[in-house]
Amino acid sequence: MAPLMTSDAAKRLEAYIDNATNKDSPTLPGAILHIVDAMNNTLFSHASGGTIPISSNSLSLIHSLTKIIGAIGLMQLVERRLASLDDTSIIAKVIPELSSGKVLLGFEVTADGKNKWNFEAQKTAITPRMLMNHTNGTGHSYFNPLMNEYMKEGWEARNEVVDPHRTALESPLMWQPGAHTNYGQGFEWLAVLIERITKKSLAVYFQENIFGPLSLIRTGYEEQYGGDITTQAGNGNAFWPRSFKVPDGTFSDIDPRVLETVERETAFPEGKYHTYSLGTGLVSTASELARLLTILLPENNGVDPVTKTRILTPSSVAEITSAQLPPALRNDSRVVLSAIPSMISPVDLESEHIDPEGSFGLGCGVQGKDRVLEGGAKGRSKGSVYWYGAANTEFWVDSENGVVVFVNGILWNDREWLSFVAGVEGMVYAGLEG
């Protein structure tokens, strides 16, 4: 039986969202909640606040939710036998810059106050699977304190926001591949892998193989990453800029209403720089992203419910949505550390009420057991696929209940977001029927 949202629950959700965005004392500058079932029927959709009039069709940066699109793209290449998840030779063949990288062990401060860095050679081959489940050994200058220290010289020009590929090229590994998890940078190398295999930019590849076949006209790369999605005809007034909270409790936009295009050097199948990122970079809408993610529900198993287009095989869906980490890594190293606490809040996936027994999937998290919210309220089910972006964009795909939930607050990394989403989540599951 298809799920339904009770009218009482819908009213409570609307009131809760409106209260969080009220003009007198807002917690958020705006919020969008969009929920669909496996057939892409809208179970609930509500938008409130915003520095522009917002709806489920508003464009916004989805940040790290880009990663699951990268996983979908790579799995398509696996299906075409152009790549293999556990091939121990493909990285050396296609990305020799990564396979030859050394592992940073630490540093000593010399008499003149400089850091003397200690390295060792790679002992384990990196595989495409490792790039997507965060066990490839790479770090991230925002999410690894030692890596941040290493990259401090010239930081303004070599960090993942300003130049993700230069940063990846100039970064050492932080662990032997397969020995630890560290969230983030593997997807920049996945971007290089896909572009070099296909000899196409990611923007072209995704348009030809995902966005175009599904007629997703408001999903694509932002101008700061070489794209043009927010300035395309029909999209110019739909972009909702990110905000941050200022000391007086009000909100200020981070982005201009029209994003400036940044030209990026094309360099596939060879060369140092590549045009597009996979750690971040995509723009989408609540309605389009939720619809795309319905392909991960078991009722669809890789098929878009609207066009009936197959995007993935069932086996590829199973790979993306399966727990990828062995227990030792799952329980030891899933904390997303913060190297810059003033900009990025650490996220402990093991903490109570989040995901104490969960794992990384491919480009996502996989819920380890039924989520129990504070006060005992029910949350998302075991096996749900989820992730979140730095500007408070979040999704989860709940196979047991047959729903895709997308929540967007576009507020830069605010701690109050976790409480807001938990409140939404409790109301959603209290109101679902079927």
TrEMBL record:
Domain of life: Eukaryota
InterPro entries the UniProt entry points to: Beta-lactam-related, Beta-lactam/transpept-like, Diverse_Enzym_Activities
Residues in Beta-lactamase-related domain copies: 28-407
Protein name, entry field: Beta-lactamase family protein
